[in-house]
């Protein structure tokens, strides 16, 4: 199966770097991350077209056959136009539909509000990664995450650190008075694409231009140092951050469709 979606192509790029197992079938791909079975988008099935009438049962059967012990259901839809398929089939499976915007840029516009007091640099060593964990927890909706969710977040950060140490990913922090107040990663495989990961800013330091400065710095570095030709970032079309990316020169290119159902209605989800 050839993947057309730029969002999923770069997702799969990172999954391969992280050691996930990707199995191709004529109409779908199976992505499996044995080290983290509760990570939805490390353990999912990517189908080659949106669900049509009668596909729901087959899709669910394919997923349960590949992941018999999974409590979640995660299905990707390859495509570029945001078509999520037949609503009745999605409703029958109790799926939540997410259609995110894939943005790209080949050059970036400097931010309007550069912050001279901010130091932006790659993370190095235990102290930097400890600050990255503090930042990640601080950005969680609803305050302090549950113990189960903290474990999930720590596992993801550990994976990011391993990827950085292997040379597949670089994680940058924006430091104010020595404290990491914003962060993001960039990965590339030498094929011309570079994908941003987890742009986040501490709630107490938002609307100061930190995210703009950080994304511009990382993107410019990727184009210059990694030889990337196209920068890729995926964003919620209804969240304010997408305006930041557009102001820096990113343009809407595609739509990415993800369908998921949590293990327990209203329970702790690990997306």
From TrEMBL:
Residues 118-271 form the N-acetyltransferase domain. The keyword Thylakoid does not apply. InterPro entries: Acyl_CoA_acyltransferase, GNAT_dom. CDD domains: NAT_SF. It holds the Pfam family Acetyltransf_1. Signal peptide: none annotated. One of its GO terms (molecular function) is acyltransferase activity, transferring groups other than amino-acyl groups. Keywords: Transferase. This is GNAT family N-acetyltransferase. It comes from Streptomyces palmae.
């Amino acid at each position: 199966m050839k993947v057309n979606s730029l969002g999923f192509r770069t997702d799969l790029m990172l999954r391969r770097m992280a050691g996930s197992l990707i199995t191709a079938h004529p109409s779908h791909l199976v992505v499996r991350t044995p080290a983290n079975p509760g990570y939805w988008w490390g353990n999912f099935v990517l189908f080659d077209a949106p669900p049509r009438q009668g596909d729901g049962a087959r899709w669910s059967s394919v997923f349960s056959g590949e992941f018999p012990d999974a409590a979640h259901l995660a299905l990707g839809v390859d495509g570029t136009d945001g078509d999520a398929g037949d609503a009745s089939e999605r409703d029958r499976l109790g799926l939540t539909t997410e259609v995110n915007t894939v943005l790209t840029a080949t050059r970036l516009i400097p931010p309007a509000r550069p912050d001279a007091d901010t130091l932006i640099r790659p993370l190095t060593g235990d102290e930097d990664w400890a600050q990255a964990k503090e930042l990640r927890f601080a950005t969680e909706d609803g305050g302090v995450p549950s113990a189960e969710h903290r474990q999930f977040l720590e596992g993801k950060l550990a994976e990011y650190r391993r990827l950085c140490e292997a040379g597949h990913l670089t994680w940058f922090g924006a430091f104010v008075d020595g404290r990491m107040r914003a962060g993001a990663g960039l990965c590339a495989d030498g094929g011309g694409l570079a994908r941003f990961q987890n742009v986040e800013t501490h709630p107490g330091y938002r609307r100061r231009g930190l995210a703009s400065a950080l994304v511009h710095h990382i993107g410019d570095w990727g184009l210059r140092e990694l030889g990337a030709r196209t920068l890729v970032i995926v964003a919620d079309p209804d969240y304010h951050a997408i305006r930041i990316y557009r102001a820096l020169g990113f343009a809407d290119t595609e739509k990415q469709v993800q369908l998921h159902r949590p293990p327990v209605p209203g329970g702790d989800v690990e997306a």
